[in-house]
Amino acid sequence: MKRTLQILALVVALGGVITWAATGANRAWTKTSVPVKTLDEVTGIEGITYKKQFLPGVDFLGAAFGGAALLAGASFFFRKPKTNQPTNK
Fold first, then answer.
1. Angle at 81 between CA 75 and CA 84, to 5 degrees
2. Rounded to two decimals, what is the model's pTM?
3. 32-73 pLDDT, tens per residue?
């Protein structure tokens, strides 16, 4: 059980980093919409519209590391099973 929790902690941490990096490595807070510059065809004025898009930020990364730390910390509550070794009398 101890080794399983440690491996699961590693998977959670690596999964968080890979997801964060694959979606743009946003070094700000998590965003659910991003600004997009648009040009009005009639007047030629630039404007900003918002497109719905999920960009995980450093808070997402922190939550992944926090979850991994909890799993790794929980693994310390389990001991290795003792093996019965024959004694020579």
1. 165
2. 0.73
3. 999 999 998 899 899 999 999 988 999 999 999 999 999 999
Residue 26's nearest CA partner among 50, 61, 51 is 61
Of 70, 80, 87, give the one whose Cα is nearest residue 3: 80
Tokens read off for 54:
């999920």
Tokens of 35: 């600004």
Q: Identify whether 55 is part of a domain.
A: yes
The whole domain housing 14 covers: 2-77
Q: Nearest CA to 4 among 61, 83, 82, 78? A: 78
